[in-house]
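haha ok so turns out i had the wrong file open the whole time. this is the CORRECT one, sorry everyone. sequence first:
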Amino acid sequence: MTIRFLKAGNGDCISITYRDGKAKNRNIVIDGGRSATYFDTRFNRKGPLRKEIDRIRSNGEKIDLLVLSHIDNDHIEGFLSWFSKDKKASALVERVWFNSGKSIAKELKEKENKDLAFNVDLPGNTNTGVPEALEFEEYLTKGSIWDGKLIGAGSKLSLHGIDLEVLTPTLQQLRKLVREYYKNTGEDIYTAADVDDWKQDIKDIIALEQKKGFRFRQDRSVKNGSSITILMTYGGKRFLFLADSHPIAVKKQLHALGFGKNNPLVVELFQVSHHGSKANMHKHLLEIIKTDNYVFSTNSVRHGHPHKATIARVVSENPKANLFFNYDKVKSGILTPQDRKDFPNVEPKLITEYVVNL
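then structure:
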């Protein structure tokens, strides 16, 4: 199995290739990153998602599952760019996981929230040249790649030798999304921080958070809370992909599955939520997820992700943690000279792909 963490700007785009029982390649793509992840108009060049799609297509393969974790721009733009530019896009995809505003409203018997709608601007015909604006849900339905069913906590799928279990969102989180999301809603300022946050030493942050009175403040974004999070099992090994999820909801679901501090979930690889935001990683969640490999997907543009507080919580729980970043400037800048002295076994690493040998 090969897991690729594509350069997706300040977003996520993950491509997973594995072999089924007949040694046939299968592919899963989770999120599409920013628009430039598919095509970078600034430099007029293909982005990493386009190159992945070209690879899959040239090998005669399919995307067996495409997952849109939630409707944030840094997760959906790359897909919208692809579908808008590639007339044969839907023919490459076998199945989609996506919780649309329409499907949530229908399933939960709520009023539809128009702010959750997205359009795909399909190329126009040769006569008019005018693009056809098609709602994202309608595009997926027309392509027969999406059944409109909600994907939430407890959903499971066995897919050609791989097992996927969804931890979040809960129905409560989806109901909150369709009731409370408005496009003019700003980001919770607590999820953002200046890059100068990186200048703080890990030991100082650990000491501060151990003081009496420290209070963790969870991300309040209803979009992030609606993230589809996936526990994946392949060849007896587990992998965790948390999108931009809220830690308390993930922790509750893991507890419901029987995991806890005395019976932790052991994973091969852990994609840290919300690009390492301090509001999306609680120390109690880290206590029940055991791994040596933590992945942070972001170029750190906007919001200063990953926050140093998140790095400190990881290192406090696991002083031998492998910290993987998919942009070199983050890898090179996240630790201070003092951090390297205090935690000599923690070495930031650049990740393009993670290969799992069974």
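The two ends are 8 Å apart (CA to CA).
again sry for the mixup
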